[in-house]
Write a structure and sequence with these properties.
Elements: H1 2-20, E1 23-28, H2 43-49, E2 58-60, E3 66-68, E4 71-76, E5 82-87, H3 101-112, E6 127-134, E7 137-142, H4 149-152, E8 179-185, E9 189-194, E10 207-212, H5 216-224, E11 230-232, H6 240-244, E12 249-264, H7 274-282, H8 286-294, E13 299-300, H9 323-332, E14 339-345, H10 349-363, E15 367-373, H11 376-385, E16 391-396, H12 417-428, H13 432-448, E17 453-465, E18 468-469, E19 486-487
Parallel strand pairs: 1-10, 1-11, 14-15, 14-16
Antiparallel strand pairs: 2-3, 4-5, 5-7, 6-7, 8-9, 9-10, 11-17, 12-16, 12-17, 13-17, 18-19
Helix pairs in contact: 7-9, 8-10, 12-13
Length: 489
């Protein structure tokens, strides 16, 4: 009898443990400065909210493909200038209000408005009109054909929001996603719970907590102690072999869309001189940065384009490591004795560690780069908004975002009418071969103009408990999509 009771107790215990595995704690390095993906540039906003809280007309899958989101289908006019989206029926926002064509119009008009703070206004620049046909049909007119439009609508900057909840979106995000925002303890964590009224397939997880751990040592300690279940973008790659050897964990290493660049203020003297920018590019030993800052994780790039993209052009020979040539270029530009500039670094390890290495490399050619370490909100204010910097290091994690070089007001302030015209032509081109040729031209122009120092494509390392399933290996956009994540049996 005692044996039977003991067996029943053990079974009950295991059943309760299994039932308990419907929550998850995910750590990431950067905390969002706010919770509005349509009003800010910080990658961390999408990392937490993309697909989990907010959804767009289309969405990215983990393999990079674009699939229907809140739009179940769309029709393109014969001339390629009108997209008619059919929305899913029965979709509600987390506050219970209905998501319909009026919300799509509101979201797209808000994103493209003159006073919009959307970080990627270029995604909406060719929209001339948004018309509500009926509650489940919306017509978007463009100023020319754009075969890339469904791709553009999958970005986190293009998610659908509602006028009823927009006022407090930065601190209380109300979306249509599989999880509902619950709480945000700034400096520590953000919590969300399963959306029981979700229109799509219900997630396996009942709740999720995102923790923000910026320090690499603290990140290692949190994972080893199993205080977190997953760390996406683990900031200390030198520790990965230790996790790989530990059966408690799995290590996933994938690609991102993150072109890591030595961002250069093209309007600030002396960087308004292409010879100076070229000298900087030739002073950089990419492999030393990859090895020293990333412990070998990363792929060298010679332009702003992902090497895994089939349209990537290898332009590394435009900026080989050649410090003697760099010194000669500086002298030719009138800076034989070098100069002093700022190097403002955001928190990620690739920036802080890489910045020390780059500063040392620049010293070898006579450039003194004075390092200032900034928190993410400071970086967005000083560098991205105010453009108050000489050099910086950042990964641009948005997918295929070479179009940012066509915006002269973008923070690195590159103003090239030839490039701008090329991007306009690209947007109007639907033939795949013609698009590939235009993208090759675009990559070559910015490489030969040495707009920025092109360093490496950022790899993403995820350390997770061994029995967690459904995590993205690659990051086709900056997202920690939990909609398909579950605990194994």
């Amino acid at each position: 009898m005692k044996h039977t009771i003991f067996t029943a107790s053990v079974c009950a215990l295991f059943a309760s443990i299994a039932a308990a595995q419907t929550d998850i704690t995910v750590a990431i390095q950067l905390e969002p400065p706010n919770l509005d993906p349509t009003g800010g540039a910080a990658q961390a906003i999408d990392s937490v909210l993309y697909s989990n809280i907010f959804e767009g007309l289309t969405r990215f899958e983990g393999d990079g493909s674009v699939v229907p989101g809140l739009a179940q289908s769309w029709v393109i006019s014969e001339d390629g200038t009108v997209y008619t989206f059919t929305l899913r029926e029965g979709v509600t926002f987390h506050d219970g209000t209905t998501m319909d064509a009026d919300d799509v119009k509101f979201s797209l008009d808000r994103a493209r408005a003159e006073d919009s703070t959307n970080a990627q206004k270029g995604l909406f620049a060719d929209i001339t009109d948004v018309t509500v046909v009926d509650p489940l049909t919306v017509e978007v007119k463009l100023d020319g054909p754009n075969g890339n439009f469904p791709f553009n609508m999958a970005w986190g900057d293009a998610v659908i929001v509602a006028p009823e909840s927009i006022e407090n979106i930065a601190s209380n995000p109300v979306g249509t996603g599989a999880f509902v925002f619950s709480d945000w303890v700034q400096g520590d964590r953000l919590e969300m719970t399963r959306n029981e009224n979700y229109w799509g397939e219900a997630p396996a997880l009942e709740s999720a907590t995102f923790r923000f751990i910026s320090d690499a040592t603290a990140a290692f300690a949190a994972v080893m102690a199993e205080d977190v279940d997953v760390f996406v973008g683990f900031p200390a790659p030198e520790n990965l072999p230790q996790f790989e050897a530990d059966p408690r964990f799995q290590v996933l290493v994938g690609n991102t869309e993150g072109e890591t660049i030595l961002s250069t203020n093209n309007k600030m003297p002396p960087f308004d001189n292409v010879l100076v920018r070229q000298a900087v590019a030739l002073a950089i030993d990419r492999q030393a940065i990859i090895d020293g800052a990333m412990f070998g994780l990363g792929t060298p790039i010679g332009t702003h384009f992902a090497p895994h993209n089939p349209d990537y052009v290898d332009l590394l020979t435009n900026s080989p490591y050649d410090p003697e040539r760099a010194k000669a270029l500086l002298a030719e530009a009138g800076f034989a004795d070098g100069f002093t500039t700022t190097l403002k670094l955001p928190p990620p390890s690739y920036a802080r560690r890489g910045g020390e290495i780059i500063a040392s490399q620049l010293r070898e050619i006579g450039i003194s780069a004075e390092i200032t370490n900034l928190e993410w909100a400071q970086w967005l204010e000083e560098v991205f908004k105010a453009k108050d910097y000489g050099l910086s290091i950042v990964s641009h994690t948005e997918p295929m975002d070479i179009g940012i070089y066509a915006n002269p007001d973008y923070y690195f302030q590159y103003d090239n009418p030839e490039f701008q015209a090329l991007m306009e032509e690209l947007n109007k081109t639907t033939d795949p071969a013609a698009r590939s040729a235009l993208l090759a031209q675009a990559q070559t122009i910015i490489s030969e103009d040495y707009v920025n120092g092109y360093l490496f494509e950022l790899a993403v390392a995820t350390v997770a408990k061994a029995d967690i399933q459904g995590l993205w290996v690659n990051q086709p956009t900056a997202a920690v999509d939990l909609t398909g994540v579950s605990w194994g049996e």
